[in-house]
Amino acid sequence: VVVNHAPQCSCEPGFTGDPFAGCSQIQAIPPTEGPRNPCNPSPCGANAVCKERNGAGSCVCLPEYFGDPYTGCRPECVINSDCDRSKACVNNKCRDPCPGTCGLNAECRVVNHAPSCSCLPGYSGDP
């Protein structure tokens, strides 16, 4: 277009840029990202899993683990001293260590997390 003997340039509809240097097609606006995954990255501590609930991440301890799922969950025990003195830590659980330990006509007592067998009165031998 010429106005008062001077060229007036403009980009065609659907184009943008410097009309004296060159116009380029306007790019379609890409669709916005879908909703953010509140569990990525996970807000949970060790041995916990994140589940999305109403757009927010919710942490829970894995089965057999206890504690605060946001700071870290732990098993019931790792070493014997995590248990009462009458129990032993077996497969990360506080258990009575006596069952199946002593022989016939013997009794079991737990002493400082360990089974101790002794013969019943009137019996002798290897309990």
Structure at a glance:
It contains no helices and twelve strands.
Topology readout:
Blueprint: E1 2-3, E2 6-7, E3 15-18, E4 22-25, E5 48-53, E6 56-61, E7 65-68, E8 72-75, E9 88-90, E10 93-95, E11 106-111, E12 114-119
Antiparallel strand pairs: 1-2, 3-4, 5-6, 7-8, 9-10, 11-12
Description:
The protein has 127 residues and is an all-beta fold. Among the domains are: 37-75, Ribbon (Laminin); 80-119, no CATH class. The protein is built from no helices and twelve strands. The chain has strands at 2-3, 6-7, 15-18, 22-25, 48-53, 56-61, 65-68, 72-75, 88-90, 93-95, 106-111, 114-119. The strands form six sheets. The chain has a two-stranded antiparallel sheet with strand order 1-2. Strands 3-4 form a two-stranded antiparallel ribbon.
- Tell me the β content: 35-45%
Mean pLDDT across the residues is 89
Q: Sketch the topology as an H/E string, one letter per element.
A: EEEEEEEEEEEE
Amount of helix: under 10%
Q: Can you list the strand order of the major beta sheet?
A: 1-2
Largest beta-sheet characterization:
2 strands, antiparallel
Q: Helical element count?
A: 0
Overall 3D shape = rod-shaped
Termini distance? 111 Å
Structural class: mainly beta
The total count of strands amounts to: 12
Rg, nearest Å: 37 Å
Stretches where pLDDT is under 50 for at least 5 consecutive residues are none
Protein name: EGF-like domain-containing protein
Domain EGF-like: 35-74
Organism: Homalodisca liturata
Keywords: EGF-like domain
